[in-house]
Write a structure and sequence with these properties.
Elements: H1 5-16, H2 23-42, H3 44-48, H4 53-65, H5 71-78, H6 82-94, E1 98-102, E2 110-114, H7 116-136, H8 142-163
Antiparallel strand pairs: 1-2
């Protein structure tokens, strides 16, 4: 197996500080590096459609929940700040992919839903996006994918419990 960049970093730390326990860096460093590379790669099909990953996530949240959501609910669903969601919604509304309905009791609250065009776009994109992501993982066997998914799920539950309150 070819050595990854994190193995080189760990080796360098061992040379500077022999005996230093770099095991956490071996995990966190690799997750961070994978996340950065995957973020760049998974955006490619979306860019062809004129979408950012964040805009795709908003369309996906509206589609998968199957109901209207407020900007605050969308922020929670997409792990984004309220300001970021507002900015993304402006773009999606301008493209007629999302519509806004004011609340009947509180005009400050908006209820957002997909337009027909938004529904058609997300329904067309999701299978292509999943195929593309599957191709990115092509070198990883099914059993390893399952084990990796299980391990990452366990880590995510732990981190959400410890750091979840720090999220926007």
């Amino acid at each position: 197996m070819t050595e990854d960049v994190i193995a080189r970093v760990l080796r360098q730390w061992q040379q500077v500080h022999p005996g230093l326990d770099t095991a956490p860096m071996a995990v966190i460093g690799r997750i961070g590096r994978c996340a950065a590379l995957l973020q760049q790669a998974t955006d490619a099909p979306l860019v062809r459609e004129g979408l950012t990953r964040a805009e795709f996530d908003i369309l996906g949240a509206l589609r998968r929940t199957g109901r209207e959501l407020t900007p605050g609910q969308l922020a929670k669903e997409t792990f984004a700040s309220g300001a970021a969601v507002t900015k993304r919604l402006r773009v999606l509304e301008a493209r007629a992919l999302v519509s806004r309905r004011p609340d009947e009791r509180d005009r400050r609250v908006a209820h957002l839903s997909l337009t027909e065009e938004g529904t058609a776009l997300i329904d067309r994109l999701v299978p292509h996006q999943l195929d593309y992501e599957d191709a990115l993982l092509a070198g990883v066997g099914e059993e390893h994918r399952r084990l990796l998914a299980d391990a990452l799920a366990e880590l995510l539950v732990l981190l959400e419990g410890r750091l979840g309150g720090l999220q926007p």
